Amino acid sequence: MGVVVSIANQKGGVGKTTITLNLGYALSKMGKKVLLVDVDPQFNLTFALIGMDVINYSDKNVGTLMTKESSIEDTIVEINQNLHLIPSHLMLASKEIEIINTYNRERRLEKALKPVFPEYDYILIDNPPSMGVFLVNSLTASDFVLIPLELSYFGVIGMQLMFNLMKMIREETNDSLRLMGIVPNKFTKQTRVPQMRLKELKELYPEAPILPTIPKSISIEKAQGEGKSIFEYEPNGKASRAFEKLAREVVRIAEGEE
Ligand SMILES: Nc1ncnc2c1ncn2[C@@H]1O[C@H](COP(=O)(O)OP(=O)(O)O)[C@@H](O)[C@H]1O
Ligand SMILES: [Mg+2]
């Protein structure tokens, strides 16, 4: 039965898309069947996986799925045998109004995904950096939240916003939502600031699990620029190993407790 994980943070540029993509690849390499869902109107994840083909999905994307204009079977794109995608699209931003005005608007994604839960081990949802109907749908459909974080002053302070939102979701639509953990991203030991922030983070939120860190790596940026995962770009590098370690920890948390 698919474990649903939202990769979320209201801050932009912290690595949500990068982590969704590379964690998805890492899990699929472990033999897990993975579905990636892109609910960000900026469709960065979709573009990374299918490039300009995105224009061909105007009537088969996460927006049309949520308004029931397309079926789940028709909306899933096969990237490889173990890795599938529900794409986002340019028109998703305009769909937002339509979805807001429909019945059961917070549960549209959950209901749409439910029929394929048994077919996947992991469903990873990449989210927009705004607290709108897509993020609420994503958290309502999820078992876990994984929060990528850049260890900056405002990054650490901003965690409170995510925790407030999770509390609201638990009260209103999904009482079993759990924090899988925080992933410190773009981590570097070249300056002392990230380690200092990491210490502050642990002091501020002692209950929040800290997952394996992802190093700051030029290969990650370059891979993304070429529309590749880090495993296709530099399979034996430090960044690939970090994502493998993160994937093992995700599996331990998600499956160890079942
Ligand atoms: N660990 C990392 N090392 C270097 N660059 C990174 C790393 N993680 C993300 N980036 C880069 O930072 C930028 C923002 O990442 P992205 O995943 O798009 O963030 P978000 O989805 O949260 O907006 C991208 O250009 C990406 O390539
Ligand atoms: Mg993104």
TrEMBL record:
Source superkingdom: Archaea
Annotated AAA domain residues: 4-178
InterPro entries: AAA_dom, DNA_Partitioning_ATPase, P-loop_NTPase
Pfam families assigned to the protein according to its UniProt record, in alphabetical order: AAA_31
UniProt-recorded name of the protein: Soj homolog
Source organism per UniProt: Pyrococcus furiosus (strain ATCC 43587 / DSM 3638 / JCM 8422 / Vc1)
